[in-house]
Amino acid sequence: MRIHGSAISPRSISGSSGTLLAGLGVLCFSLSFPATAWALSGGDGFGPWTVTGLRGVLAALAAGVCLIRARVPVPARQHWPALAVVALGCVVGFPLLTTLALRISTTAHSAVVVGLLPLATAVVAAARGRTQLTGVFWCAAGVGAAAVAGFAVAQSGGRPGLGDLFLVGALLVCAAGYAEGGRLARRMPGWQVIAWGVVAALPVTLLVSVPALALEPVHLTARSVSGLLYLAAVSQFGGFVLWYRGMAAVGVPRASQLQLAQPLLTLLWSVLLLRESLPPLALLTATLVVGCIALTQWAGRDGRRQLRVSVAGRRIPNGGQAD
Predict the structure, then answer these.
(1) Can you give the pTM of this predicted structure?
(2) Between residues 198 and 178, which one has the greater pLDDT?
(3) Pairwise CA distance, residues 123 & 128, whole Å
(4) What confidence score (pLDDT) does residue 3 get?
(5) What is the mean pLDDT of residues 163-186?
């Protein structure tokens, strides 16, 4: 056990506990789109730029308090490039682009398009680090991604619009933030990764918030305020604490595949909370995605077993994880 900033080393977490933590993070994130819709409230809440700025500012205030109370030292210089990617991708880019998309797309449609995020995260992690994954893993991830992509195309009538472009940009910048944050969480506690990320983004989120509050209409309702508070406290901070800690324990690519369940959970919330109609292909997509999740988790465990054997013999074959 290693104590660093009043936190237990992420390496002390078992694989099953790491999967549970990552899964809880996915559950938190699955409510982000409905919460954003509540914050916007169809023009009767906050404006999109106001939502993006304030969720970051409020999360930075909460994170700053936690860092000060825990007396966490400033991260080493070599960690700041990764923290900058987390800040720009997860704190600024993804919230802004998805909020703009939700003004012209439904929550259900947006959720399924962003269902491509697990594959994008795995690709970025494999390219950025030294992770090698089996062909079974990539096939299962590809089928899951194809399922959600086909669902999105079918729902949009085969004509991707401006909202889809926003969403594709969002998943690309978020994949980079997830991958870098997951790698960094192997070197420092996961909660500190996102805490420093939102603090690093504070100058930008403040710069966005001040003019947005002056230029965009603000209607304080219970619905809009609760949506904004959820985004700040859970989507932007608390959920990432669980997510990065889980990723550090089981690896970025394997944990990212748990997010294949996120669009399906968001579909459920969109029906229960927003009274949106459930697309007819949702059940078929759900069946395919659940199967892909099971297969990627099995492939991930097999790869980790190969790595442990190869390390004992001073050899790392293809299919292992060297990260």
Answers:
(1) 0.79
(2) 198
(3) 8
(4) 35
(5) 89
